[in-house]
Design brief:
globular; 3 helices; single chain; mainly beta; 54% strand
Length: 261
């Protein structure tokens, strides 16, 4: 899946650019073989509107793909102490594994990505571990650098319900300055609302998400510096009430990306 005026180098870099953890994954996947890694500081850890850790967090990510089969490993580490979640400095707030398969229909500009994803929260009290099974799909529009997508996931353990998302992502390049932006509208079942900290008796729309990340090359080959921001706005008044009128979560990031050229 390629864009004619965007270079392969830029597309490869943007594969690992997005910082977010949201319903429809904005990161551009590249096959059949690929790998990249990143290390970022986040102002807080936010998961589709759910605040998992309310302070400085380090995210380490590695993604590898062989013969279109992909494995991604993400860890989040606290840089402060939070008595509310019983997390101390330097402890893991989340460990995440994702296994997927990339189907590319280049003739129609379509990607389909079935996946399995699980998360554990080693140091957060009373946190269940979801086992998500779902599929993402992205379609390349005739307008250069713009794609639309959708996703559906359900918890195989039947504890956290299911969720659905539609989104748009955009890719830009100008003289070594690269930018990826994304927007998504997310909805889920009652159990999914409860999983995110919303109203457990509400279903339907959860959050609206907007985000972007900019990248600039560093002097060392294969290394790039990134900076980004993403916001999650809760749409239902019952969810807002359950969150004590907390209508939004905004997260900033700065990091380094490694990708062989």
């Amino acid at each position: 899946m390629t864009h004619s005026s965007l270079s392969l180098k830029t597309l490869a870099l943007l594969c690992g650019a997005a910082t977010t953890v949201c319903a429809v994954e904005p990161t551009l996947e590249k096959g059949p073989d690929d790998w990249h890694g990143s290390f970022k500081f986040l102002s807080q850890q936010v998961d589709d509107g759910a605040q998992r850790f309310d302070d400085l967090t380090a995210q380490t990510s590695f993604s590898g793909r062989f013969a279109n089969v992909g494995l991604q490993v993400d860890t989040w580490t606290s840089f402060d102490t939070d008595k509310a979640t019983n997390v101390d400095f330097g402890e893991f707030t989340e460990l995440r594994l994702r296994l997927d398969y990339l189907v590319e229909l280049d003739d129609v500009g379509l990607q389909i990505i079935p996946h399995l994803q699980t998360s554990s929260y080693p140091e957060i009290s009373n946190a269940d571990e979801p086992q998500w099974f779902g599929v993402d799909a992205w379609y390349m529009l005739p307008v250069e650098g713009i794609e639309i997508g959708a996703s559906f996931d359900t918890d195989l353990d039947d504890h956290h319900g299911s969720f659905f998302s539609v989104g748009v992502r955009e890719f830009f390049q100008d003289d070594g300055f690269d930018l990826v932006a994304w927007q998504s509208l997310n909805a889920g079942s009652e159990d999914y609302h409860a999983y995110l900290g919303g109203d457990p008796d509400t279903s339907g729309f959860t959050t609206l998400e907007l985000g972007f990340e900019a990248l600039m090359p560093l002097p060392w080959q294969g290394l790039w510096m990134s900076g980004g921001i993403e916001g999650h706005w809760w749409l239902d008044s019952n969810d807002q009430d359950a969150r004590n009128d907390d209508m939004a979560e905004v997260m900033f990031s700065i990091g380094v990306h490694l990708r062989p050229e």
